[in-house]
Amino acid sequence: MSGHSKWATTKRQKAKVDAARGKVFSKVARELMVAAREGGPNPDANFRLKIVVDKAKSVNMPAENIKRAIERATGGGDSAAFEEVIYEGYGPAGVAVLLEVMTDNRNRTAAEIRHIFDRNGGSLGATGCVAWMFKRKGQVILNVEDVKQSEDDLMMLALDAGAEDFSREEDQYVVLTAPEGLEKVRGNLIKQGLKVADAELTYIPTTSTELGGDKAEQAMRLLELLEDHDDVQGVHANLDVK
Q1: What is the pLDDT of residue 38?
Q2: pLDDT at position 16
Q3: Where are the beta strands (DSSP E) in 91-133?
Q4: 201 and 223 share a domain?
């Protein structure tokens, strides 16, 4: 069954490094605040918040930090200023790039994102310019080391749980679902005794742009710089490195 662009794998590996040094805390706190503000402070009644709380725990964010972020949101704190925005653009050789952003100043963020694109062989595009190359999907990640079943048995479990797609990418298994099926599939896998490393709504490229050599390095550099921006919550690209 199909996998994804190699940027997705690299991004997850980079997230582990960022989490190890605590860099990811501020981004997760922002996600917590927005999720709590939109769906309420109870994770049991707010699946989006439950997913982000699980993410916060997976990167060893202190429980007090998680509680504080949720309280700030539901207590009318500064989370009310954040808005979710999608930015689209092109990297070197036409690589499609889609960004999920949370910002309290859209003009500032747009200018900074455009500057990163311009300095690294890309360009910020108009709304809709690349979104058609991506599909919204639920994604469940399982670490290979946590799975006792064979790959074939795990694939059957995932499909029986309601998954649409299944693949192995290096040291992780990736289970894709319909967006509305994420909660069900995640829950079914947990009921089967599987340890879920991560679960989220994401964007999966439907086409790929294959690059090698200097162009691939330049594209990876652009994506990493975008990922490092404080307001960027997710970077999705159809880059396939030779």
Answers
A1: 87
A2: 56
A3: 96-103, 123-124
A4: no
Name the helix (H) or strand (E) containing 106. helix 106-119
Q: Is the pTM of this model over 0.90?
A: no
Indicate whether 107 and 170 sit together in one domain.
Answer: no
In a domain, 186, yes or no: yes
Taking the C-alpha atoms of residue 151 and residue 167, their distance in angstroms, rounded to an integer, is 9
Q: What is the DSSP letter of 135?
A: E
Q: Which residues of the chain have pLDDT under 70?
A: 1-23, 76-80
Identify the domain containing residue 73 by its residue range.
22-81
Looking up tokens 């036409």 gives: 94
198-205, strands of its sheet edge to edge: 165-169, 172-177, 134-143, 198-205
Rounded Cα gap, residues 117 and 111, in angstroms:
10
- Count how many domains the chain has: 3
Q: Are both 101 and 155 inside the same structural domain?
A: no
- Residue 58 to residue 198: CA distance in whole angstroms: 8
